[in-house]
Amino acid sequence: MMTTTAKNLADVVARVSAAARRASRKPEAVRLVAVSKTKPVEQLAECYEAGQRCFGENYVQELVDKAPRMPSDVSWHFIGHLQSNKAKLIVDKVPNLTAVETVDSVKLANKLNGAVEAATERSAGALRVMVQVNTSGEESKHGLAPGADVVALAKHIVENCPQLAFSGLMTIGMPDYTSKPENFETLKKCRAEVCAALGLNEDACELSMGMSGDFEAAIEMGSTNVRVGSTIFGARNYA
């Protein structure tokens, strides 16, 4: 019998596939990151048993604590704000860290590059990174303002961080649904600017946008990476 978490996961997977098809895209072109912030490893294990292999964490300590307790073929994405002095910690303690989606400074990029270069037990090869863009302009959110700074950071990663693989752009939309299409369009515009400046094909530059409340709309607008937490795992416990 499927657990509630596994049933929720199956429902989200079906919704991801349906949204992709509505946009005339293949379902496999969209990565689902199951975000388990504040949730116990037992729930992650339920998702793993149901076939999920990509998980995301917002907090360094949670990631460091959970990763050793999950199978080694899990692909971990760090999706929270990362202080540069914690770069070495997550690289060293999570050998199968696949991606950091929230790079927002040259300093952080350099720290991650150095940490990967020095890592002795890393199993995931080059670390994929995304540049976080604050498309809503909210002071409460991290990320670079759309424009020249985004292009400059992406260029720095490509040209000066050989241990990192620039893979795209990430944003956190506004909570008001009516504003989100504008946020997503802004991220797509940023991608066009980055790809033009770096001579990249836009298909090679991912868009990480869309969470529990709007992942279907994000997929229909071109997202290749959606980060879904509470819809799979239930309301978060911050006690």
Question: How would you describe this protein?
Answer:
The chain has a single domain, classed as Alanine racemase (TIM Barrel, Alpha-Beta Barrel). It is of the alpha/beta class. It contains nine helices and eight strands. Helix 3 (60-66) links the parallel strand 2 and strand 3 (75-78). It has an eight-stranded parallel beta sheet with strand order 7-6-5-4-3-2-1-8. Helix 4 (87-93) runs parallel beside helix 5 (106-118). Helices cover 41% and strands 17% of the residues.
Properties at a glance:
single chain, 239 residues, alpha/beta, TIM Barrel, 8-stranded parallel sheet, 9 helices, globular
CATH class (first level) name: Alpha Beta
Radius of gyration: 17 Å
C-alpha geometry: globular
Taking the sheet with the most strands, its summary is: 8 strands, parallel
CATH topology: the name is TIM Barrel
What is the helix content?
40-55%
The neighbouring-strand order within the major sheet is: 7-6-5-4-3-2-1-8
Q: What are the segments in which pLDDT stays under 50 over at least 5 consecutive residues?
A: none
CATH architecture field: Alpha-Beta Barrel
Report the count of strand segments: 8
Look at the helices and sheets and give the structural class.
Answer: alpha/beta
Could you provide a short overview of the structure?
The chain contains 9 helices and 8 strands. The chain has helices at 4-22, 41-49, 60-66, 87-93, 106-118, 148-160, 180-198, 215-220, 230-233, and strands spanning 31-35, 54-57, 75-78, 97-103, 127-132, 164-170, 206-208, 225-228. The two termini are 30 Å apart.
